[in-house]
Amino acid sequence: TITAIFFEGGKKDADPNLDNVMNVLAQDGSLFPFWLRSCILSAKLNESGRRYGWGERDVALAAHHCHSTLIKALLIEHRSHFNLLNGDFRKAGYHLKSAADSYRGCGQRDHAARCYIESLGVYNTGYWDAIHEQLYSTLTHQCVDLDRLREAVDYYIDLLKHDGAIARIPAKQSDYLNDFICVIQNLFA
Question: Which PANTHER family match (predicted)?
């Protein structure tokens, strides 16, 4: 079993044993759930500092082969945490947005909103106009879908104050303003 790996031979033997188990599990498609658990375990060990260099790869591999959209979203979100630990903020924001899109696709709207907000927080560390505007726009729609109209209003205000290139296009400004007015009307209705 996977847990037996850590009781046979101590910590120094755990990495090769886990790699061997993962290789065996990867060869048989019927053992996919166990392989997926091994990938997550490996990622957790990497995150805790007990295993180095494999965690992000294992999570990426598991997400790539996973058929469940929800599990894939969880794995992609987990991958973003490796990016944050490594200081790769742009990749972390990208993976958080991808996880949010996956959550949204399988109807997990609250998780999607949380990941969009985290992604926006990551991207606030840099200067990426198009991403900011896309995230603010998506967050406004997500909050409206969740009937969180006050939050949607706040995100619309941030979006309308933003002076990025897309926001300066008159047609875009008009779309944002029309959507904002609809949300305000619904809020006070």
Answer: TRAFFICKING PROTEIN PARTICLE COMPLEX SUBUNIT 8 (PTHR12975:SF6), TRANSPORT PROTEIN TRAPP (PTHR12975)
The span from the first CA to the last CA of the chain, in angstroms, equals 59
Supply the pLDDT for residue 8.
Answer: 45
Neighbours of 85 (CB within 10 A): 13
Q: What token pair was written down for 86?
A: 């490594």
**Distance between CA 34 and CA 161 in Å, rounded?**
49
Contact indicator for 156, 142 with CB cutoff of 8 Å: no
The residues, any chain, with a CB within 8 Å of residue 26's CB and separated by 6 or more, are: 35
- Token pair recorded at residue 88: 């790769």
Distance CA 116, CA 153 (A): 16
**Two tokens at 188?**
């006070």
Give the residue ranges of DSSP H helices in the chain: 14-27, 32-48, 55-65, 69-85, 89-105, 109-123, 129-145, 149-161, 170-187
Q: What are phi and psi of 128, to 5 degrees?
A: -125, 90
Residues of the chain falling short of pLDDT 70: 1-59, 61-62, 65, 125-127, 129, 163-168
Distances (CA, A) of 24 to 2, 41, 107: 12, 16, 34
